[in-house]
C-alpha cells in the first residue's frame, strides 16, 4: 500500500514538473502574441476603414 501511494505521488510530481516546464516555455510566446494581436486591433480601429474584420472574429 505504501508503494502505491509513493508511486502516485511520484507520477503526480513528474506530471506537474512537465506542465510547469511547458507553461514556463510557452508563456513568453503567449504574451508576445497577445501584444501583436492588440496592436493589430488598435491599427484596425485607428485606420478607420469601413471594411473591418474585427467583428468577424
TrEMBL record:
Organism: Nocardia callitridis
Sorted UniProt keywords: Membrane, Transmembrane, Transmembrane helix
Superkingdom field: Bacteria
Lineage summary: Bacteria, Bacillati, Actinomycetota, Actinomycetes, Mycobacteriales
Annotated transmembrane regions: 5-23, 29-46
Annotated protein name in UniProt: DUF2207 domain-containing protein
